[in-house]
Amino acid sequence: MKATVLFFALCLSNAVHGQESSAKPRPSPLAIAAARYKDTYCKLTYSQPSKRGREVFGKLVPFDQVWRTGANEATELTVTRDLKINGADLKAGTYSVFTIPGKDRWTIIINGDLGLWGAYNYNPKTDVMRIDVPTTTDTEMVYETFTMWIDQKNDKADWQMAWDRTKVIVPIQFLEPKL
């Protein structure tokens, strides 16, 4: 009986130890930006890479190439009811978000493929929408880590993305539920 208890104690100890060693924090932690208007919930799930002394846009994230919009897995956008993004209709659902950063403008891509790692298997044939938005640039570094947030003003909101000295704003319009 003592041998059995000792055996299970060792197994439990090894299992716990194994979980601890594999549960290392990610260098680019998971983050969520969300907003709610009446019955509509909008959530962005993404990973936050850090600048760590690197040149970000144009180097680490090349201009004019598809980017996963963060780190690790592709960023995901979930909306519970239809809404408008930059004036274009988006049906309720979950989507991957990719971007094509440029010096003065970014293309925001809402894509139907899910569960992607990075942008390696990005397929433009499954794009749901593409919109272009201007960038703003600050003279000094503003954000060490890539950050997204939704600045909500009742039925309108600004989905904002910023990293280093670059910022983009994507307008969102929450719609009244159809009766």
Summing up helix and strand content along with how strands pair, one would put the structural category as mainly beta
Oligomer: single chain
Query: Share of helix among residues?
Result: 10-25%
Could you name the ranges where pLDDT drops below 50 across 5 or more consecutive residues?
A: 2-21
Mean pLDDT: 87
N- to C-terminal separation? 67 Å
Rg, nearest Å: 20 Å
Give the strand content. over 45%
* Major sheet description: 11 strands, antiparallel
Q: What letter string, H or E per element, gives the SSE order? A: HEEEEEEEEEEE
Please report the number of helical segments.
1
Task: Provide structural commentary.
It is globular, with a radius of gyration of 20 Å. 12% of the residues lie in helices and 46% in strands. It has one helix at 2-22; strands spanning 30-37, 40-47, 75-79, 83-85, 88-90, 93-101, 105-111, 127-137, 143-153, 156-164, 166-174. The chain has 179 residues and is mainly beta. The chain has one domain (26-174).
